[in-house]
UniProtKB/TrEMBL annotation:
The lineage of its organism: Bacteria, Pseudomonadati, Bacteroidota, Flavobacteriia, Flavobacteriales. PANTHER family: BLL7424 PROTEIN (PTHR43737), DUF1501 DOMAIN-CONTAINING PROTEIN (PTHR43737:SF1). It comes from Maribacter hydrothermalis. This is Sulfatase. Pfam families: DUF1501. Gene3D superfamilies: Alkaline Phosphatase, subunit A.
Length: 497
């Protein structure tokens, strides 16, 4: 290329950059204001936009909801590892009557199995070692392992007919959390942060709490991409709150740093980043500025919400003794209620330890005890505060467990492999019909025989309750419009009140 040609092209670049840079002063400022939850320009009485009018909070991209919403927020109690529906919710006395008999091929019908049981010569049927009793107005069967859940059965909707295509943990969990078995898509909370924003500018719209169960403490791990933003701006990724001295990593200032110094540093940093944005037009720079500002505001808001010392004794008694131990499921349920009170949009709890391929009777007793009281307490606590009607609480894992034993079956112990064809979840609040059981499985507890609910159906229904039409809520990326429910999903209207 000639020197003259190089000079001409450089001149064009500079002119274009100058124009875009000046234009970005206005457009970029408005975009930044939206990202950081500070409405720098709001329309006042004289028709001009001012900094003093309008509500606080972070605005999402949806200018208006697709239809009236029933809820403001979601608390998702994800039970990682695959809880056994046959020990907890789906009572199948036939399995005890035919204990040890081989699973009929007419029931299995050629279903593919995991590598852990595909080599077994026989698939001996095994029922639960634990009793079931009828509870509530409708006489719903609930396992003796869940006495607190049994007491609130009239407040929840139990869905027994969930199913998925994924047969192993990683793709199955990823499918529930992102709508795809392949990693890289935005998580549910990220979609909601992107679409709806937050009603609290001092806390992220999407928070994550982790706990490790005592049933199988060294069970399946979890990956941060499960609460990742995928191809959405990084502003929308979930923020993990840890059970540690520093609940959010890198939030605290170094010793000797004053508030004035920090504020001055952030202002100068924002100026430099804004200059970079004007030159490059990269929207991630705006996200970076927004994250700095959010971290600054979280320095005071996070310690306040994480400190439960002011909770009365009856609350600790309601959630159980573990509620005073940071990092337990019970403590996280209490924190979830506190975050809900602060109008956090999506609160995700992950509880690990349900992957019980062997010694299931012993392990599931511990695991159920970890979660039973606190899950019921969360629903009751929200209800007594008048918050259950605009909060959707979800409880469930990525798939269920087989009706046959993995490995050796004895009089006292057995294991169960992964089972995607049918499993159970429950929901409460948020315009969901309380006190009902939806869907049925066959007498072997192996196949759905009535009202199947696919993962995408569940996701579509959750979005519906938030006022979102899952088919219209899309994001264009690499030439394709993506959505949480991919190309499937229908709203399960029969469970909506």
């Amino acid at each position: 290329m000639s020197e003259k040609k190089i000079v001409e092209e450089r001149s064009l670049i500079l002119n274009r950059r100058s124009f875009l840079g000046k234009a970005a002063m206005g457009v970029g400022g408005i975009g930044l204001a939206s990202l950081i939850g500070t409405n720098l320009f709001r329309k006042g009485e004289n028709g001009l936009y001012t900094a003093d009018s309008g509500p606080a909070g972070v605005k999402g991209v949806l200018d208006s909801l697709h239809h009236p919403s029933k809820i403001k927020r979601v608390i998702y109690l994800f039970q990682s590892g695959g809880p056994s529906q046959l020990e907890l919710f789906d009572y199948k006395p036939l399995l005890n009557q035919r204990r040890g008999e081989d699973l009929p091929e007419s029931i299995r019908n050629g279903q593919r199995l995991t590598g852990m049981t595909s080599g077994q010569d026989k698939f001996p049927l095994v029922g639960s070692n634990f009793g079931f009793q009828r509870h509530g107005k409708n006489g719903t069967y609930i396992s003796d392992l869940l006495p607190y859940t049994a007491k609130m059965v009239d407040d929840i909707c139990i869905v027994k007919s969930m199913y998925t295509e994924a047969i192993n943990h990683d793709p199955a969990v990823t499918f529930f959390q992102t709508g795809s078995q392949q990693p890289g898509r935005p998580s549910i909370g990220s979609w909601l942060s992107y679409g709806l924003g937050s009603e609290n500018e001092n806390l992220p719209a999407f928070t994550v709490l982790l706990s490790r169960g005592s049933g199988r403490p060294n069970g399946q791990p979890l990956y941060t991409r499960l609460w990742g933003n995928g191809f959405l701006h990084s502003l929308h990724q979930g923020v993990q709150f840890r059970a540690a001295k520093d609940p959010v990593l890198y939030l605290n200032d170094p010793k000797g740093t004053t508030a004035d110094v920090k504020r001055s540093m952030l202002d100068k940093l924002a100026e430099l980043n804004d200059q970079h944005y004007q030159e490059s037009g990269d929207p991630e720079i705006q996200s970076r500025i927004a994250q700095y500002e959010m971290a600054y505001r979280m320095q005071t808001s996070v310690p306040d919400v994480m400190n439960t010392d002011g909770e009365p004794d009856y609350i600790y008694k309601m959630y159980g003794s573990d509620a005073k131990i940071p990092g337990t499921f019970a403590a996280n349920c209490l924190l979830a209620r506190r975050l809900a009170e602060k109008d956090v949009r999506f609160i995700q709890l992950y509880h690990m330890g349900w992957d019980q391929h062997d010694n299931l009777p012993g392990a599931i007793q511990k695991q159920a005890k970890d979660v039973d009281q606190a899950s019921a307490a969360l629903v009751a606590d929200l209800k007594q505060r008048g918050m259950l009607e605009d909060t959707l609480v979800i409880w469930g894992g990525e798939f269920g467990r087989t009706n046959y034993s993995q490995g050796l079956l004895t009089d006292t112990t057995y294991g169960r492999d992964h089972h995607p064809r049918c499993f159970t979840m429950w929901m409460a609040g948020g315009g969901i019909k309380p006190g009902i059981v939806y869907g049925e499985t066959d007498e072997f507890g192996y196949n759905v025989v009535k009202d199947p609910v696919h993962v995408h159906d569940f996701q579509a229904t959750m979005l519906h309750q938030l006022g979102i039409d899952h088919e219209k809520f899309t994001y264009k990326y690499q030439g394709r419009r993506f959505r949480l429910t991919d190309v499937e999903g229908k709203v399960i209207n029969d469970i909506l009140s």
